[in-house]
Design brief:
By secondary structure, the chain is α+β, with helices and mostly antiparallel strands. The protein is built from one helix and four strands; from the N terminus they run ββββα. It has one helix at about 65-75, and strands at about 20-25, 30-35, 45-50, 55-60. A two-stranded antiparallel ribbon has the order 1-2. The longest helix is centred in the last third of the chain and has 10 residues, at about 65-75. The radius of gyration is 21 Å and the shape is elongated. The relative contact order is 0.11.
Length: about 80
């Protein structure tokens, strides 16, 4: 298959919305594009309660402290 880049350096592939790909550069002008398996999102189970006059949401699973620190580092 041959694809052509537009004037904004974009290439359109025949895919479905939301599909994920892994892009590897092999140096120079060679790239390998590999389709990844879809990720099933995990729904959060949240219960809403009143605590000390505030409305609070509680998750049904514990929060990963390392993931929280990493997310907050990227926050402006």
């Amino acid at each position: 298959m041959t694809v052509i880049a537009d004037n904004k350096k974009r290439v359109t592939l025949p895919t479905k919305p939301g599909e994920r790909f892994d892009l590897q550069s092999q140096g120079g002008d060679r790239f390998i594009l590999t389709r990844l398996a879809p990720v099933e999102p995990r729904k959060a189970k949240v219960s809403i309660k009143k605590v000390g006059g505030y409305t609070v949401g509680r998750l049904g699973h514990p929060v990963n402290a390392d993931a929280l620190k990493k997310a907050l580092e990227e926050f402006p």
